[in-house]
Amino acid sequence: DGGITQSPKYLFRKEGQNVTLSCEQNLNHDAMYWYRQDPGQGLRLIYYSQIVNDFQKGDIAEGYSVSREKKESFPLTVTSAQKNPTAFYLCASSNNEKLFFGSGTQLSVL
Amino acid sequence: DQQVKQNSPSLSVQEGRISILNCDYTNSMFDYFLWYKKYPAEGPTFLISISSIKDKNEDGRFTVFLNKSAKHLSLHIVPSQPGDSAVYFCAAIPRNQFYFGTGTSLTVIP
């Protein structure tokens, strides 16, 4: 089935640790996005990529990094510089008309 | 500054009645709008969209209305069903970026 796969579903981070969230799509979409959702808040854009080997910062990029080496993959690294990483992270891809979302990763701090 | 706003964080409606969810935007250049539905711990799923060349789009029980002069759109669900209970996000797309509102949590009471 075509879609977006995020893994893991749940992730725990220790103090000072970097963690990487995986996002893979087989929809052949050029554009991919990472959003963060906090309780009672909307979806805030972290990073997006319109094409392979290129990406731009969103509204809350500090403390995060991404790469886009392949069209299918857009991993997000939450670095130790991100002081409040506990949130629900959503990856999405776009066909320029709408966004298709993965099922999300819940990141918590130990 | 929030470019897409949903001023009602929550809404409760009796089963069988109409649910009306509202969304306001600030940028008159926005020309394409979408509604997404989200269950807890899942990714949002696309519901319905509308282009600025229209003022109404209908899909089954869901209708979206767009008032460009007021920079306002609304989603009507008729009749509301318990399975419609979820968080609803409106979004605007200018130039391949997606701006989301903060969401409205709809509860349909059986």
Supply database-style keywords:
heterodimer; A: 7-stranded mixed beta sheet; 4-stranded antiparallel beta sheet; 11 strands; B: mainly beta; 6-stranded mixed beta sheet; globular
Describe how the helices and strands are arranged:
The complex is a heterodimer of chains A (110) and B (110).
Chain A: E1 4-7, E2 10-13, E3 19-25, E4 31-37, E5 43-51, E6 54-57, E7 64-66, E8 76-78, E9 87-94, E10 99-101, E11 105-109
Parallel strand pairs in A: 2-11
Antiparallel strand pairs in A: 1-3, 3-8, 4-5, 4-9, 5-6, 7-8, 9-10, 9-11
Chain B: E1 4-5, E2 10-14, E3 19-25, E4 32-38, E5 45-51, E6 56-59, E7 62-67, E8 72-77, E9 86-92, E10 99-100, E11 104-109
Parallel strand pairs in B: 2-11
Antiparallel strand pairs in B: 1-3, 3-8, 4-5, 4-9, 6-7, 7-8, 9-10, 9-11
Number of E-state strands of chain A: 11
For the biggest sheet of chain A, the summary is: 7 strands, mixed
Q: What share of the residues of chain B does DSSP label as strand, in percent? A: over 45%
Q: In DSSP terms, counting alpha (H) and pi (I) runs of 4 or more, how many helices of chain B? A: 0
Percent helix of chain A, as a range, is: under 10%
Mean pLDDT of chain A: 93
User: Over all CA atoms, what is the radius of gyration of chain B?
Assistant: 13 Å
Main β-sheet description of chain B: 6 strands, mixed
In words, what does this structure look like?
The complex is a heterodimer of chains A (110) and B (110). Chain A is mainly β. Chain A has no helices and eleven strands. In chain A, a hairpin with a 4-residue loop joins strand 9 and strand 10. With 110 residues, chain B is an all-beta fold. Chain B contains no helices and eleven strands. At the A-B interface, strand 4, strand 5, strand 9 and strand 10 of A face strand 4 and strand 5 of B.
